[in-house]
# Entry
Amino acid sequence: MPGIALVGTQWGDEGKGKVTDLLAEHTDLVVRYQGGNNAGHTIVVEGERYALHLVPTGILYAHCIPVIGPGVVVDPQVLLEELDTLTERGIDTGKLLLSGNAHLIMPYHLELDRVTERRLGKNRLGTTKRGIGPAYADKATRVGLRVQDLLDPKIFSAKLEVALKEKNLLLTRVYGRLPLDQPEIEEQYLRYAERLAAHIADTDPIIQKALDDGKTVMFEGAQATLLDLDHGTYPYVTSSNPISGGACAGAGVGPRDITRIIGISKAYCTRVGSGPFPSEADPADAEILVEAGAEYGTTTGRKRRCGWFDAVAGRYAARLNTLTELVVTKLDVLSEFSEIKVCVAYEYEGERYEHFPPNQTIFNKCEPIYELLPGWSEDITSARKVEDLPKEARSYLETIESLVGTKVSWASVGPGRDQIVDLGG
Ligand code: IMP
# Structure
């Protein structure tokens, strides 16, 4: 009963879609367990490029059942638009399962995400403005509306009334905005309900049965370890738990149901939005990484901040997620450099930190300690076996492996499905 968790080890955008694609052939269910349409998975299947935000990548494979689990926050308008686009491209979207316990992103969540970011000014988090944080906040304070509420107009209306009363006070009195109109929202959401009803399911027993039947279930994380609400670089994080432990709560399985935990890491490091980033590169090197790695966000189009591989963060992610293996993506991007930096530790007030610092003051102010590794100038995009890689690239991967303490099972060398070097994964 293999349950496989796929988690990002950095600040997101590590190329998780590529790894789903590698494993898809032998996967029966692909379950999203947290986040919402703040995510962006780019995936190339049979030469076609897809950018998915909310729908699990499993939708692209005829034999896979995609599941949106209870831990996800769902903007129904975005979901329906994504399904329509996929249907137009010939994908069977009828098989999508949507947990009735997932929470809904409501119009006031979008509005609140925008106005709070504006109010924070230079302290803003740089959110994706998709209403993620406010929707999770309502879930925690127990005034959220869930997908199953769409199936009962009376309950939907009663819950909306409670939530909207408070939200309209906030919007009008604190933020000086216009109030939102209950009948308008109700009409809009009950229209979505008509189309979503066929997808709404009690997903927990479906996932459990698949595991019991010996099927392969992939738990697909969005965002990544350092954006985790509890373990990431708070407050510059997302509002859910992307770490592997989050898959249990967000999908409704126990820890023993997950036996393989694959961490995805870029060969360098990127982050979008605000917050500390110790191994951020100087502007000239960052620009090379942006251009060679096409480092622009799938969801917001923002240019990503770029830096060097951070082994301290790598070790942290390996431990927090109990990784069984690591996949290194975008190794080809580093062909641009004659010398490659790797952050092996941090330094703060003369003290060396091999492990993630215990508090944010240190993390915010620490300096990276770099080791310099020789680069390679060869184009490695057609490498498929480890012997095809120049010795410097092999040694780079070995260095990552030993610094992080986790076996590297694959390295990707380009966006295409076949551009992958199998290192024994
Ligand atoms: P939110 O998830 O929209 O609330 O944004 C909170 C933080 O997480 C911001 O710094 C975002 O840029 C970041 N973030 C959210 N989703 C992703 C993602 O899929 N990739 C990378 N960063 C993300």
Observations:
- Residues 11-13, 38-40, 125-128, 130, 132-133, 222-223, 227, 236, 238-239, 272-273 surround inosinic acid (CB under 6 Å).
- The longest helix spans residues 153-174.
- The first strand starts at residue 3 and ends at 8.
